[in-house]
Design goal:
Structural class: mainly alpha
Distance between the termini: 81 Å
Number of domains: 1
Largest sheet: none
Length: 111
């Protein structure tokens, strides 16, 4: 049987610590890579959803603009050229107040 000296034991202990350190670094590197990829995917999905909401809002505003232009044209033709610029604004104000009133009633009645 061979004798194990303190220096052999110390060398083996340091080699074990080095191997464990390398394994720990590798596992941390893999974990951080996976987390970075997950974060990039989440950021992409969030950015995509924000872009879709922005596109929906923009298309709604364009549709409302065309509708306002049509109402203005009808008022200009059939009602009065002096009142035509104000009628679409008054209509949108009345509709928005109606929505605010309905939202206020819904809040009082429940969640």
């Amino acid at each position: 049987m061979s004798k194990v000296t303190i220096s052999d034991f110390t060398i083996a202990l340091f080699e074990l610590a080095e191997a464990e350190g390398k394994a720990l670094r590798q596992s941390i590197r893999l974990f951080l890579t996976e987390e970075r990829l997950a974060l990039e995917k989440t950021a992409f999905n969030s950015g995509l959803s924000i872009a879709l909401v922005g596109a929906a809002i923009l298309s709604l505003l364009i549709a409302l603009g065309f509708l306002s232009w049509g109402i203005y044209g009808l008022c200009l033709t059939y009602i009065s050229p002096q009142a035509a610029p104000f009628i679409p604004g008054v209509l949108w104000l009345a509709i928005s107040l109606l929505f605010l009133w309905a939202a206020g009633r819904r809040k009082k009645n429940g969640p």
